[in-house]
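Chapter summary example.
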Amino acid sequence: KGGAGPAEVHLRANVVQQQLVVTTADGAPCEGVDFGRLYYGLERRQRLRLVNTGPQPIDFAGSLADEGHEGSLLQALRIEPALGMLPPHGSCEVELVFAPSKAMNQSAKGFASSAAEVGERDGVDALSVRYNFESVELGQKVTISIGAEAIRPRVKLSRAGFVFGSCAQYEHLDMPLTLKNAQEEPFAFSIPAVANFAAIPAAGTVPAGGQLDLLLRFAPHQLGALSIVLPIHGFGGAVCSMPLHLSGTCTAPRARKPF
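The structure predicted for these 259 residues follows.
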């Protein structure tokens, strides 16, 4: 009465559970990534999003869930960026990259472990791993599964050598070539343009388990014996290159070429 009453302080707080969450690029829950089949020498990327659900910034780092194992095909897998910070209630996009190089083609054979299982079948090496996204500050790990298959080209040429014989200057001779693809994935090819010889078509795709017919053309403009090793590039040469040995003789023209 007549004095100051007890002081009152009203406190209010919103308590949230802070977590590191892994989602797909469009925000759906993510428990695993399947890269599918990819030729040795190519690269495929999958985007993920790391989300911080709380009011404090947190760290993150990506690593294999099981350490101490070796295998060249494991080296084909990486994350960009591999570590970083997430702001409060923020997110960050990361990319998982599967890039089996041509150099890994042979060394991947026969490897097997509890962390990664690699099995070869018909030119296919399968990789199955568990991957951690970890926040040290939260003491939390989120584990996802990653699957991928690295495949070898299984393309055969009906012939590797072609002798066209004699052809008059400014005329042409054609010979058939068939590309057969025994792999279960399409095979893209290209053949560079060179003088006196050509392929029709010069680029295309051999369907999975199918074949494609081409014409090799000898259209000489230079007199004399001509030869060349013409490469067939698989995926621009990133996957493989197969040589074609072409030769022919250019003789004098039947009639003078008009000016």
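To summarize the output: Helices lie at 104-107.
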